[in-house]
């Protein structure tokens, strides 16, 4: 059997840098550590063919160590990646999360346009005189019938859009934000953007989900 123990340090460094949330899941699911305590600096300390050891800081500030066995025992350290991924998927699923994490708010140039349009609708609903000025004789000079139609229904249109976007934010986006463990502040920002953009923001977030689940492999 080829000795591949030289990759242990690389695996440990990678887990501690990019997969802290998975270490937290391991502690909660496989060692029944309280979920709030498991968030306190979970660190992969050691890795062997039979187990891994993860540390965390308890409520008294004491560093605690938990050994989590591998079942069955690994045949080589190169098998550890698949094993850690498998354990991460199962642990995250039991907690109602994804094994992947999304930290960045997907906001691109097209989002600025959509937000601008939504804010414009809000301003027109708040102060219809501004809309009347834009569509009236002073600027666009629309026909009186068109002006009357716009002024009669623009508030209804704005309210309908807002209700639909709020439903999309609550029913579709919020479960995704929770599943991918976005921080509270960023979660609120995403919900606000969805209330303004609706499906435009949802499509951007789903692209971010796809990128998280199918990361591009670094070139050698």
Domains (count): 2
SSE series: HHHEEEHHHHHH
Radius of gyration using CA atoms only: 25 Å
Please count the helical segments: 9
The outline comes out as elongated
- The helix-and-strand class reads mainly alpha
Largest sheet: 3 strands, antiparallel
Helix content: 55-70%
Spatial order of strands in the largest sheet:
1-2-3
Span between termini: 26 Å
Structure summary, number of beta strands:
3
Low-confidence stretches: none
Q: Please, what is the average pLDDT?
A: 92
Q: β content, as a range?
A: 5-15%
Pfam families: DUF2470 (PF10615)
Organism: Pichia kluyveri (Yeast)
Protein name: DUF2470 domain-containing protein
Keywords: Membrane, Transmembrane, Transmembrane helix
Structure in a nutshell:
The protein is mainly alpha-helical and 220 residues long. Helices cover 61% and strands 9% of the residues.
Molecular structure report:
The chain has two domains: 5-95, PNP-oxidase-like (Split barrel-like, Alpha-Beta Barrel), CATH 3.20.180; 109-213, no CATH class. Helix content is 61%, strand content 9%. The chain contains nine helices and three strands. A three-stranded antiparallel β-sheet has the order 1-2-3. Strand 2 and strand 3 (63-69) form a beta hairpin.
């Amino acid at each position: 059997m080829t000795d591949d123990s030289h990759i242990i340090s690389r695996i440990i460094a990678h887990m501690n840098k990019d997969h802290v949330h998975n270490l937290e899941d391991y502690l909660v699911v496989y060692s029944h550590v309280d979920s709030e305590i498991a968030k306190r600096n979970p660190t992969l300390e050691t890795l062997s063919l039979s187990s891994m050891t993860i540390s965390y800081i308890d409520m008294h500030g004491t560093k605690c160590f938990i050994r989590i066995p591998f079942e069955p025992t690994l045949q080589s350290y190169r098998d550890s990646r698949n094993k850690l991924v498998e354990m991460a998927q199962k642990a995250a699923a039991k907690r109602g999360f994804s094994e992947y994490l999304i930290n960045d708010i997907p906001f691109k140039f097209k989002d600025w346009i959509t937000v601008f349009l939504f804010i414009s609708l809000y301003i027109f609903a708040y102060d219809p005189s501004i809309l009347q000025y834009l569509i009236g004789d002073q600027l666009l000079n629309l026909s009186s019938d068109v002006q009357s139609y716009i002024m009669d229904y623009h508030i209804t249109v704005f309210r309908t859009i807002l209700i639909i976007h709020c439903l999309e934010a609550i029913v579709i986006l919020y479960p995704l934000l929770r599943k991918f463990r976005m921080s509270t502040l960023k979660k609120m920002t995403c919900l606000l953007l969805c209330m303004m953009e609706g499906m435009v923001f949802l499509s951007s977030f789903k692209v971010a989900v796809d990128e998280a689940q199918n990361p591009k492999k670094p070139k050698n």
